[in-house]
Amino acid sequence: MLVGDPATRVRENGRWQEYGTKRLTLMNWQMQATGAEIIRLTCAALTTLGVEVICPVHDAVLFMADRSCHEDVGNLVAATMERAAITILGARIPIDRQWIMPGDNWRPKKGDKMWAVVSKALKGNAALRGVDGNPVFANTLFNCLATTAEGHSFRPVWQPSFIQQISPQDCCHLNGLALENGQPRYVTCISQSNVVDGWRDRRNGGGVVIDVTLGEVIASGLSMPHSPRIWDGKLWLLNSGTGEFGWIEGGKFHPLTFCPGYARGLTFAGHYAVVGLSRARDNRTFEGLPLQDALRSHDVDARTGLLVIDTRTGAVVEWVRIEGVIDELFDVAFLQGIRNPKIIGIKGKEINRLISIAPHTPQNS
Length: 365
What we know:
The chain is an alpha+beta fold. The protein folds into two domains: 9-89, no CATH class; 121-353, Lipocalin. 19% of the residues lie in helices and 32% in strands. The protein is built from five helices and 20 strands. The protein has helices at residues 23-49, 70-89, 112-123, 290-297, 350-353; strands at 9-11, 17-19, 52-57, 60-64, 129-131, 134-139, 144-149, 152-158, 174-180, 183-189, 207-211, 216-222, 225-231, 234-239, 244-249, 252-258, 262-269, 272-278, 305-310, 316-321. Strands 5-6-7-8 form a four-stranded antiparallel sheet. A hairpin with a 2-residue loop joins β9 (174-180) and β10. α1 crosses α2 (70-89). The longest helix is centred in the N-terminal third of the chain and has 27 residues, at 23-49. The radius of gyration is 28 Å and the shape is globular.
């Protein structure tokens, strides 16, 4: 780490070094470096002793042990850490332990406030409320619909009948959710597979739309369906593998407009639909899909951008083409009444330079 003037060098006996001139940096360095060295020696010793070390967590060690002997292993870990401290400091240090049993969840308490803010913001979005006032979303990796749950990553609320267990296997690639009156109504899946990563074998023709309330497939034979939306009394979606925007009726997909790219992301404003387009990935996204032949027949390359489509005629009335480093769009949203939206990232200079001052009344001196 380089802090301040790199010409100033601080060195102690041992393996850790730090550059810097800031007063607080120098005051904190010895404590942090000593703690890190204790953890390093502890992890090395535990690995030699055969303890299954998962990772260091700041000034602690996360390890795994069988329930039949976890107390004995815990005592061994504590004694090993104590010996490491004596080696580095020449003195014992207080050592605490916490067991995380199967079904329990561990999280640092300092993250509670942040998650409370995020959860409040999500619950405030009426369009997302689906389960007891909480947001509901498509959990693609775990093949289910899920909602937020305090102290946990998510809580499953629904899964297709062909999915036998909630596990991170991305079997069917459940990727899209359509809400009706704020409640989950339809989902899109690339396939009906219950095998890990099985959807990749059914990209062409294996896609389905499932009615969540009935638990039944209402449309099949689709190719990479995405972004189901209920609008103006119809169920619209993107049949991405064919490059088509259309609607479901009578158990069939009715294409309305060809989209020159991988269509993903759909929203509506009045009689108009806005569709997101993406170029192919390096892993040959379009290979083996009808979209590849459709692009060739239209003598056009896949593009990244937006299409504005008149749902009454299927005509593309406006378009935006995005060039440069952006290859993919994952979703689109219509922000009513906003002409120049902006997102402040966490890496650029804007986050430090964009300042908003609340109105105030200056006091007379």
